[in-house]
Design a protein that fits this description.
single chain; 7-stranded mixed sheet; 4-stranded antiparallel sheet
Length: about 120
Amino acid sequence: QVQLVESGGGLVQAGGSLRLSCAASGSIYSANTMGWYRQDPGKQRELVATRTSIGSTNYTASVKGRFTISRDNAENTVYLQMNSLKPEDTAVYYCNCKRLAYPRYDYWGQGTQVTVSS
């Protein structure tokens, strides 16, 4: 059974920084996409950033230039460095690990709260 364990959320003032980490435990086929999504209450979950195992990245427009996603393939760990945080970045951040080709899988973490005060 694969589990994604997140850490690093918290409360920070606007302009500050946080670093989220997510480690996948269990047996997992390594060619995949790992990433971060976020969700505010009453809103749909949205993509923040993803990174494939070969290094391709994708960011939502509102975080480009402020957030950086990285990963350690050997450890099945993904990180999200968040700089210049804004109050609108406040949300629950979820880690995701998915593979669309066979063997397919789609795993989610339990979520970590990020709160940015103005």
